[in-house]
Here is the input.
Amino acid sequence: MSLAFDEYGRPFIIVKEQEAKIRVKGLAAQKQNIAAACAVAKTLRSSLGPKGMDKMLQSGDGDVTITNDGATILEKMEVENQIGKLLVELSRSQDYEIGDGTTGVVVMAGSLLEQAEGLLDRGIHPLRIAEGYEMASKVAVAKLDAIAKTFEYDKDNYEPLVNTCMTTLSSKIVGRCKKEMAKMCVEAVLAVADLERKDVNLDLIKLDGKVGGKLEDTKLVRGLILDKDISHPQMQKDIKDAKIAILTCPFEPPKPKTKHKVDIDTVEKFETLRAAEKKYFTDMVQQCKDSGANLICCQWGFDDEANHLLMVNELPAIRWVGGVELELLAIATGGRIVPRFQELTEAKLGKAGRVKEIAFGTTKDKMVVIEDCHNSKAVTIFCRGGNKMILEEIKRSLHDSICVARNLIRDNKVVYGGGSAEIACALAVEKAADDVPGVEQYAFRAFADALEAIPIALAENSGLEPIESLTAVKTKQLQDDYPYYGVDCNEEGTNDMVEQGVFETLIGKRQQLLLATQVVKMILKIDDVISPNNYQ
Here is the structure.
């Protein structure tokens, strides 16, 4: 009831316009929330693993995206339900922090909620379930730490990093070239990594691409690729030992900041103005020439007169270079960004071994490649693909792989894939359930069952019998006391993930468990949903 009365009999409103709102309480609210979250998780379930299916999503303005990356699918799905949005944020936070495992974390959360529904039907209080899940997640994380292996690598021997990146790429569209792609990603990360501080600045790795060509044409450039062309067709297109002036000042006469009016009533005055303008241009070009530069990169455009003067003085130029690209160019070439021509000196020039303009196919598309940079702390992975959708998916796949390599440099511990880590954790949680007094042991067993959803989904998506595959692997793990048996998704004839070389980063797997448990606890604690009635 929206009206209540105080001790003097005066009415007051508790909930404004209560009849215009929909309100769901208690168990019904929890069931509704669980159903919404499970619906979102089921969408992603079929995208898990090396044989996972892709999703095709069309936006309101007709843009089509084809992907099997969990975070991208949920972002483009435009989920309306508030609980569904929590799962979208869950996958986004996994993407921001780890970069990989975005599908697995949502499938895990959906499975935990599915198991919680059965416990709620038994009359167990949602808070007791949430507490049980929290305790069980600690047991599972401790088991993960126990079964993790440390990978030793250095700049010359980076094969272990390549193997882990290959596992990430095996479920993506680039799966058929995963070895070459993984190697490229690891080399890019090692080029910009600070191994002493165990830190990698991903801003220094640029992913660029051009439609056309085939996937195998993707290459790593130890420098930069600018989606620009040399400003004049008669300028030099291939410059060796380039000294680059990086400018943020325009090639044009200065304009007064106040309102002004120029009256030209004679030819002499016009000639004087033209000569003054020309002097500005010639002075600018001469200052560039005096500094020893043999290539100009300018943030602004310049008109035909400046372009002609640069060409006459044999100074190739690139115009309209974006701010981010200018910064990367300065980092890569060891140059300084110069805001005024007067400040341009030889010490501020960037150095590169070679700068060349390349053209593509029969189109007039041109790009400028800056290679063998003075400080190769900025690299570019240049992707090629048959169409725009494939190109975007290749970029997303390579980004995931780069994130995995970054995570391994931060923490070089790995667990084995194919669901082996989840099964090992499930067995550990089941064992620990016997020592837990009270109702929480039901939550422990439910948590163990939920962990098995990942290997079951992997087997389902690979066309194997899910229950048979899971029980066979589980039995093997128990009998041999060997936590590295997983589902043989690629049908290689062995369940030993060490032999198959299927790895995942420990921090990624740990984050999956902790994030999924946190979100499930949050959803279980909601017992009253008040929402506006849209249909009036």
Notes: The first helix runs from residue 26 to 45. The mean pLDDT is 86.
